[in-house]
Amino acid sequence: MSDTISAVWKAVEEDRDYVVGLTRDIVRIPSVNPKFQADPAINREADVQTRLAGELEALGFGVDRWDVFPDRPNLTGEWAGSDERSLILCGHVDVVPVGDQSKWNCDPFGGDIKDGRIWGRGAIDMKAGVAACVAAARAVRKAGVKLDGRLAIHTVVDEEAGGFGAMDLVKRSRLAKSAIIAEPTWGNIVPAEGGLTWVRVTIFGKQAHAGWRFNSIWPQPHVEGRLTPGVNAIELATRFLMALRDFETSRCRANWHPLVPAGLATINPGVIRGGAGMGPDGTPAIMTNAAIIPDIVTIDLDYKFMPQEKFEDVKAEFENFIHHFAASDAWMRDHPPAIEWDLFGLNFPPMNTPVDAPIVQSLNRRATQAQAKAPVIKGFEAVTDAAHYAGAGVVPVIYGPAGDGFHGDNECVEIDSLIETTKVIAAAIIDTCGTA
Ligand SMILES: [Zn+2]
């Protein structure tokens, strides 16, 4: 190991209390995402950012801050350097709600230390990761290392409710060649995750009186003045869901990636609404009257795709499936289902960073040296802000500490793992940015 890395790791060890103290301090500032639970007393992302901005300024970072939503700011800090060897460290400052507080054995916003762990909402997801990024830069500075490449630290809002903080940041900020997202990975290296979008499929029928349903099932010989048959959109939707399940299965069988579980390309029907008449918001206007043959069904899908798939191909394949499904029915041929992609703006591009990318290799080598438990290189089943960096052309990888209870009760981060994470990220800064 080089003298530079040894010096930086010594700085991390001598400065253990800093990363532990910063983690505890920001756990004590409740920053629950207001989209889950709106209450100004606990929606304090801005106060976390103010605290972090102070730390970054003290370390000589050039700081920028702007509101993504009212009083919900993103924060960036940057040390100048070459673009060629530039690196971003990123974390989110929002947390999910506490949930049932009676299940917690500690104050969810206490930041207590017990059993070698820091306890509280956001401890592992992901205030410890954010603190490790800041502490890693501080160790580099303390060891007197001058970097060649530009180093940036990004702390973003709103990861837990769609990643709109990171989505906004990648549109407006200078980016870098590679990025480490310090979400909890239990010391493992995560270079791949699938893409995700939400899709609304709207199925159209023909509204009619339910008393004349017989005329829909056994249409009567046409006579002048007789009712034309209704078409029940709920029944069409049932057929659609059966066909969708087969399509999903065939996609899962046809697409695989070595780092993620087989069958990850799922299409989850998450919300379904059926009724009569199209409302102004694109959902059925009447949903309380069973005496109507319904003409509108909307089905909202959580549509996942594989790390190696391109969104344009995914779209084309699904639209082709819908086209063929509709072509099998005389009514739907003339009244095909409508497809709305990126419902509510939700779209996570896939991340497919190669295992031999320098940033992955650096983290793997340094984690092997620094951690009690050897790292594994693996994919991630859900989505993170890494997606938005990947979509903007950055080479991201996810790496962070070990803990427990994320999105559950009794959330905590292991302090030894937090120190290891700080060391590994500090070494990855040196490897990636180089020394001037
Ligand atoms: Zn997280």
Determine the CATH topology of the largest domain.
Answer: Aminopeptidase
Report low-confidence residues grouped into runs of 5 or more.
none
Please count the helical segments: 12
- What is the CATH architecture assignment of the largest domain? 3-Layer(aba) Sandwich
Could you state the CATH homologous superfamily of the largest domain?
Answer: Zn peptidases
Cofactor: Zn(2+); Co(2+)
Protein name: Acetylornithine deacetylase or succinyl-diaminopimelate desuccinylase
Domain Peptidase M20 dimerisation: 228-325
Pfam family, one: Peptidase_M20
Your description of this structure?
By secondary structure, the chain is α+β, with helices and mostly antiparallel strands. The chain folds into 2 domains: 3-193 and 351-433, Zn peptidases (Aminopeptidase); 195-347, Alpha-Beta Plaits. It has helices at residues 3-14, 16-27, 45-58, 123-142, 164-172, 213-217, 233-254, 311-327, 330-334, 358-370, 386-391, 415-433, and strands at residues 62-69, 72-79, 82-92, 113-114, 117-119, 149-156, 178-181, 189-193, 195-204, 208-209, 267-278, 284-286, 292-293, 296-305, 338-340, 347-348, 351-352, 377-380, 395-398, 403-404, 412-414. The strands form 5 sheets. The chain has a 6-stranded mixed β-sheet with strand order 1-2-6-3-7-19, with helices on both faces. Strands 9, 11, 12, 14, 15 and 16 form a 6-stranded antiparallel β-sheet that branches. A 4-stranded antiparallel β-sheet has the order 4-5-21-20. Helix 1 runs antiparallel to helix 12, helix 2 packs antiparallel against helix 4 (123-142) and helix 4 packs across helix 12. The chain is elongated and about 95 Å long. It starts with a helix and ends with a helix. Zinc ion (ZN) binds at residues 92, 125-126, 159, 183. Pfam families: M20_dimer, Peptidase_M20. Its cofactor is Zn(2+); Co(2+). This is Acetylornithine deacetylase or succinyl-diaminopimelate desuccinylase. Keywords: Cobalt, Hydrolase, Metal-binding, Zinc. GO terms for molecular function: hydrolase activity; metal ion binding.
